[in-house]
Amino acid sequence: MTWEDTKSLMPLLGPFLAALAILVVGGRKERGPNPLLPLLALAGFGWTLVGVGCLWPLEGAHDAFAGGLRLDGLGLVVALLVSLGGAACTLLSVDYLKRRGRNLPEFYVLVLFSALGMMVMGMSTNWLSLLLGLETMSLALYVLCGFLRDETRSVESSIKYFLTGSFASGLFLFGMGLLYGGTGSFEFRDLGGAMLDAQSQPLIVVGVGFLLAGFLFKIGAAPLHMWLPDVYEGAPTPITGFMATGVKVAAFAAVIRVLSEIYQHEHVGLRDVLWWIALITMIVGNVAALAQTSVKRMLAYSSIAHAGYLTIALVVMRGAVGENGAIDFSGSLAARAILYYLLAYLVANMGAFGVLSYLEKQGGKGLAYEDLAGLGFKHRFLGLVLSVFALSLAGIPGTAGFVGKFLVFGSAVDAGVGTADSSFVLLAVLGILNSLVGLYYYLRVLIQLYAKPLAEDASTRGAPLVGMGTGLVIVASFIGTLWWGFGADFLNLGFGVEPAMRMMQGALATLR
Amino acid sequence: MLSLVIFLPLFGALFILAAPSLEEKRIKWVALAVTILDFLVSLPLWFRYDGDSGVLFQLGQSAEWIPSLGIRYEVALDGISLLLVLLVTFIMPLVVVGSVKTITRRHREFYTLLLALQTFMLGAFAARDLFLFYMFWELMVVPMFLIIGIWGGKPRIYAALKFFIYTLFGSLPMLVAVLYLYTKLKAQAAADPSIEAAYSLDALSSLTLTLKEQWLCFIAFGLSFAVKVPMFPFHTWLPDAHTEAPTPGSVVLAGVLLKMGGYGFLRFAIPFFPLAVQQAVPALYFFAVVGIVYAALVALVQTDVKRLVAYSSVSHMGLIVLGIFALNPDGVRGGVYQMLAHGLTTGGLFLLVGMLYERRHTREFSEFGGVAHRMPVYAFFFLAITLGSIGMPGLNGFVGEFLIFLGTFRESPVTAFIAVTGVILGAWYMLTTVKKIFFGEIRNDANRSLVDIDRREIAVLAPLLLMIIIMGVMPAPFLNKMEASVQAVVQGYMTAVGR
Lengths: 512, 499
Hints:
Chain A is an all-alpha fold. Chain A is 72% helix and 2% strand. In chain A, the strands form two sheets. In chain A, strands 1-2 form a two-stranded antiparallel sheet.
């Protein structure tokens, strides 16, 4: 541990210190919930955001803990996205938990720790730190899912997530073990070389398989998605939003790092496996989402579908190995697409869950499609923003979601033209047909909002004013969704589509 | 200038949306002011566009947008898009005036959507960048979907969803093709430094595609345009959407949105995939002719006036496709001219049907008869616009149809012959409609209390009729404006297929 190490750990320090501070300050029950605690959590995320702002653009990379953690462009982007999501989750939770009477300090501590875990995952370069990040994140999330302990569904969500999640961690660990056996090292970087060795190849193939299963479980890819709808539906709504986005950010960043090593050798059949997983995940997510009656559950299934779209980009990702073994994916449209898609998904999804957390009533009620009926005219702004979020998730042009989809499908077509392999273009076509299916259930939200008459008991809904935190998240997500959808950087202020695109590109230049 | 024309309505929409102190009743005036202003701003485009200058695309503007993907904001007009842009800006104020009585609730949302829709339509006609075009193209569907879904008739949600899903089913494959074109261009640009990889149409024109690629992309693009036109057998969304849409929605849909399809064929399908088009022409003729005759026959048996006009729309749009794919100057000229003419006449017919519906809340033929006794002025307009629609010489429909048949006959006399029967049938069902509604004795007592159209309604119809007559007796100025662009399309195609 040297001074250099601490420097590269700066972004992580924010959530960590804030969590410790809340533990120290917030432990006194008799005085009731302290309004400063969420502010402390926000300060933690703010620290990370400022840290990212100061460090960007990063020349090269900084290693810490003997190379176990690597602060590079990708790590910074992960820290940025996760802390945006975490801050949004915190802001939403303040209002949400107050209404539920569960505004306890532990909640914020756990959010901070799960965010910390996600960031560690995004920065890890060996199996051990990856596992450390994964478990920190998961353990905190297990508890957060069950935070509304008086509600059966929340508890069910927690236990389900814990049991299946532990199993996934087991798979992950087993894969790690096999890989260690195959490569004799915990480093990602030794994976590529060892794959060429005929003797260790079987171990590595099986190990990567198990490892991948662990990842796919976390992102909710089919056929490892069974846990997801129940867990997402039962968890407190802000947490669902954070889980759907933050976990994806962390897991996909880690997968990019791992795959960038594996993809150095083209002979692996991994692409074929991922091809089918992407297809099945999209179909399962979209078709199941069609049948839902609850908007929250629909968003849960649609999160599976989005994992499928993202997996398309994993299938076609390829990068360049530069001199002295550096891996540069900045030319890979697919890797860039993943990061941009995650950004788009983050803003739209946090916004949508923000609106839902506002609409939700005691016992998780009030989230059926019918409960949205006529709301677009009663709460004009709420209706407008929810429509925009739904359209963005559906991938309608003018929203960030469209640019994300455009990049993902574009990268698939790009790979198809580059290799004359029509299966990649086919995957893009199938993905697009899937998003047509997805369109239907997102449009149902708009139909309920605008085309259906206001529900009978609307007067008794007694809608509380949108709390400041919730309002802030919704407005920010709304702006972000449009801004990263068509925003042009005429004034060179660094906002809009192009700068974000450049940032994602730069983030991928120094993967190793 | 052009950008101002495009985005002025959107600013108006945002203003309406963001001004909560604005009274509901005032909103329509704001909308009217915005659309009229937009029309006035767009008029100079007509005078400043010089068809003889040898430069096809004029009055353009462009700016950096997403350089790392080769996407620019780029708009410009040629003769064809100029006329279509003017069609939009001309028809929108009339739509606003026409919707005053129809739209009785949710004014703010309605006019916001209507104005936003105008921007998207204008943008799609003016876009010179494929990405930009695609964006406007898909965005158009959203406000239309909501207009049908919120203010439509009884099964409006069904109709709105059908409309949305159908059109997106058409346009999503186009997205893959768009991506493919760009990727292909990028690959070619890597080999040849003189090629620039971008989504701009100018850059894409230097793309070379094999026949197979042309076919696949043509299917993807063509599907999207064929749904929009709509061409048989993709027309089934249209009668539902039209019948359920509120009058202003139908007018915009028939007057402008359908023209997107024809425009798309002219602007993208023919120049980019000429070889595929050449092979597809017989099939396109077939579907167009079947559409013309079939839709006309279906129109004959309708009992609902609006549905009848909707089917007549399908039939007439088939004519337009036929003219465009005759791929000689006369046919293309006729196709474009008929797009304008059809926009005016069918828009007018939907307005007229809407006026009757407001009075009687029914559109069944059997309910009417002898209406001319009570509403002479209305009957005059109805008959005049109907005559325009069926191609009476001296009115605008005639010019377009005549040119289309001239062009088609040269390529395939049989096709032209069959297609003419569609026009004859058209005269039949339209004139029967007039007869059933307006003439004879008043048998239904409910019709005795009908009031003739008022000054506001005359103010909507009079400019339309005026344009219909002007375009009927003086087609030359319009044809001159589009001449260079039509020649360019035909020449480009001829060179590509080596004829």
